[in-house]
Amino acid sequence: MTEQDYLAFDRAAEFRREFLNGEIIERQGASLRHAALQVGLVREIHAQLRGTSCELFGSDLRLRVSSRMYSYPDRTVVCGKPKILDERDDVLLNPTVLFEVLSPSTEHYDRGMKFRGYREIPSLTDYILVDPDQIRIEQFTRGDANTWTLRDHLSAEDVLRIPSISVSVPLAALYERIEFPAE
Fold first, then answer.
1. d(CA 123, CA 51)
2. pTM of the model as a whole
């Protein structure tokens, strides 16, 4: 499938599908914890972006990573004017921060192929993985010479600090209503 075929197919589809190397990747429905963490990210980040040049978008905004890869991050922050692929106004090109809430069906992809693709986006400063099964946020931040640094946030007392967008998220607030599976 070509990039143009994918866009025509996905724009007409009822459900979102990602695109990788000519193949369609079906998106699964979210668990209760996954959905609650997405809402928590909005609650904790949206107000902090008020009055800045940055804006938070939901999981329905398609991201063009390359001509071989399109995705739907769980949450996207764009600083400055959003760059859009075409007049359809439905494909973003310049994310600043991307969030993925992990799930069993996508975790390997989110950590592997997807992150490899995301690292090629010049505007991206942070890639953040949120674990719905335990208090854990992995924050990958771009440094000089295209190096990426991992910060592992592992307790409710930790604070996720994202200097590129001037946001701080206490993990206790993000995870406050999450009930973890019984061990």
1. 21
2. 0.89
3-state secondary structure labels for all residues of 135-170: CCEEEEEECHHHCEEEEEECCCCCEEEEHHHCEEEE
Running DSSP on this structure, what letter comes out for residue 127? Answer: E
The pLDDT of residue 78 is 98
For residue 56, count other CB atoms closer than 10 A to its CB.
19
CA-CA-CA-CA dihedral for 25, 26, 29, 30, to nearest 10? 0
Residue 17, domain member (yes or no): no
Residue 14 lies in a domain: no
Segment 75-113, tens digit of pLDDT: 999 999 999 999 989 999 999 999 999 988 889 999 999
Is the dihedral angle over the CA atoms 172, 128, 143, 64 positive or is it negative? negative
Q: Are 22 and 58 in contact (CB under 8 A)?
A: no
Residues 22-42 pLDDT 10s: 887 766 666 888 889 999 999
Provide the domain limits for residue 35.
Answer: 30-174
